[in-house]
Amino acid sequence: MLEDKKRWNEKYSQKEVQEEVSTILEKYVSHANIGIALDVACGTGRNTNFLAKKGFEVDAVDISNVALDKISKLPTINKIEADLDKYNITPNKYDLIVNVNYLNRRIVSQMKDGLKSGGVVIFETYLLAHGDFKIPTMNLDYLLRKNELLHAFIALEVIYYEERIDVNPNGDRVKIASIVAKKS
After folding, report:
1. What 3-state class would DSSP assign to 144?
2. Bridge-partner residues for 120, per DSSP?
3. Where would one find the signal peptide in this protein (predicted)?
């Protein structure tokens, strides 16, 4: 944990706060009831701040205290410094769970259980590119396999699912998987 925390703190110490909300969240947030939201691996809070301004009470979880310090100090934001390898999502608590550009398979099933009835999950992250693109390979443990995200949330009502080629902030072509799903 300390090594991960140190690495992420260094990254966020040198990085400007990203203000631009995730496109998938902006597009599909209306499918969730305004209430309590969880932003998994929230970083500097681009999605957290957006949700708070929309009227959600937000639990913003990240390992980096440097990143958490950059999030708005709104009273509706609860900053939680935690190692997501050990963090557990409270069952039946959230109207919305957001997970963007992060994968921890241990908590995916907890996300389903963490949703209230009618709760929505919005999840988007990188797919294994199988060498399709000339960028340094990330740790394969943090990349989805084809249709993995769909299968992980198949028990929910799938509102939107897509696997596509996109461009990351560095201008590299990447594969992305996105899902928006609702718990009955």
Report:
1. strand
2. 96, 182
3. none
pLDDT digits (tens, 9 = 90+) for 62-119: 999 999 999 989 999 999 999 999 999 999 999 999 999 999 999 998 999 999 999 9
CA 118 to chain centre: 19
HSE, CB side, 13 Å, CA atoms: give it for residue 14: 5
Q: What total of structural domains would you count in the chain?
A: 1
What CATH number does the domain containing 96 carry?
3.40.50.150
Q: What angle do CA 65, 71, 74 make, to 5 degrees?
A: 125
Question: In which domain, by residue range, is 19 found?
Answer: 2-182
Amino acid letter at 5? K
Rounded to an integer, what is the distance from CA 131 to the centroid of its chain? 24
Residue 41: both structure tokens together: 């691996």
Determine the 3-state secondary structure of 111 from DSSP: helix
Q: Record the tokens describing residue 43, joined without a space.
A: 């970083």
d(CA 15, CA 62): 15
The length of the chain is: 184
Q: pLDDT digit string (tens) for 6-33?
A: 877 788 788 676 678 999 999 999 999 9
